[in-house]
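Translate structure to sequence.
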């Protein structure tokens, strides 16, 4: 029988989306993934892939790597609080943890993109800015 336990997350480690979906579920391609089987929100940032559709704002606020700016879902105009954006905004209220992953290139011998796990973040309720660790 296949192991359906979610893979444990360790900062700095590389994961594919398929690895992360095992035991968690969630969307295959969205930048904000809301797994059905855990109380987590997985946020994926891929600056290179995002430039085409207009996602230009993802990245660290400064060298301390404590604050991360994330564009969210929606390619035109102001972001709307629907789907993933709504889940991200309401994470603290709904008791969900936010986990940030940044694209790190393709796995050797595979077409799967690997994502480096940056850690658990919380959303600043005043500015909507994600910061490392729990508030």
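Result:
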């Amino acid at each position: 029988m296949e192991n359906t336990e979610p893979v444990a997350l360790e900062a700095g480690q590389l994961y594919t989306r398929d690895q992360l979906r095992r035991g968690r579920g969630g969307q295959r391609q969205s930048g904000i993934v809301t797994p059905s089987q855990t109380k987590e929100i997985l946020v994926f940032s891929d600056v290179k892939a995002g430039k085409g559709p207009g996602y230009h704002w993802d990245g660290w606020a400064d060298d301390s790597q404590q604050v991360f700016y994330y564009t969210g879902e929606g390619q035109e105009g102001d972001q709307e609080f629907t789907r993933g954006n709504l889940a991200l905004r309401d994470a603290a209220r709904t008791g969900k943890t936010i986990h940030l992953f940044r694209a790190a290139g393709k796995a050797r011998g595979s077409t799967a993109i690997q994502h480096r796990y940056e850690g658990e973040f919380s959303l600043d309720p005043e500015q909507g800015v994600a910061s490392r660790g729990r508030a």
